[in-house]
Amino acid sequence: MAADSQILVVEDEDAVRELIVTTLEGAGYQVLPAADAEQAQRLLGDNLPGLVLLDWMLPGMNGLEFTRWLKRDDGLRELPVIMLTARGDEANKVQGLEAGVDDYVTKPFSTRELLARIKAVMRRSGTDAAELVRIDQGLQIDMTQHRVSANEQVVNVGPTEFRLLHFFMTHPERVYSRSQLLDQVWGRNVYIEERTVDVHIRRLRKALEPFGFDELVQTVRGVGYRFSSQA
Length: 231
Ligand code: CA
What we know:
It is a single chain. By secondary structure, the chain is an alpha/beta fold. The chain has 2 domains: 6-125, Response regulator (Rossmann fold, 3-Layer(aba) Sandwich); 132-227, Orthogonal Bundle (Arc Repressor Mutant, subunit A), CATH 1.10.10.10. The chain has 8 helices and 12 strands. Strand 4 (81-86), helix 4 (90-99) and strand 5 form a beta-alpha-beta unit. Helix 6 crosses helix 7 (178-186) and helix 6 (159-170) packs across helix 8. It starts with 5 loop residues before the first strand and ends with a strand. Bound molecules: calcium ion. Calcium ion (CA) binds at residues 12-13, 55, 57-58.
């Protein structure tokens, strides 16, 4: 289950970051390492991880500011955040919780504790996300397992179609232009032609077609696309 999960690790101390990367990879996670918030922002332009493990004290934008930045972004605000703090930062923890931090791990930590916290946060947010993205009682995305199901059968979709469907299901009944979809699903720093969107829309419809859910992905002529259960 964890093998599909990607974790963004933001930590400026090389030795600590490397230790975390090794630990997480050993537990079957895919890791995106970043040495500061700016690098993490660039990585989020191309990737949608399942969780962010974030050091509080970073050069430049600190962990708290980075969390606030995440929560202001429609496409990223549901990303769970675990903050790494030093002992004695208890007073700051409230600030972090208010900003949307899901949990804390205090340094120095054992790898066992770290993995247990990650699992717990992923389980909690996975349940929330699964509930959030159920539509028509038949189509469902499970963020924890990175799986789409239709009428309880697995729908095979590629990673881009998965992100596209997740975006549609969390933003239904609204029309998005191709360039808005590129920004939201592919990321702001990616330069791809707008017709790439059409290719992935076609693939997504094809994957949903056997279950009759392809009609939820609607073309709005001259504007873009909408995900809607109303014809
Ligand atoms: Ca640090």
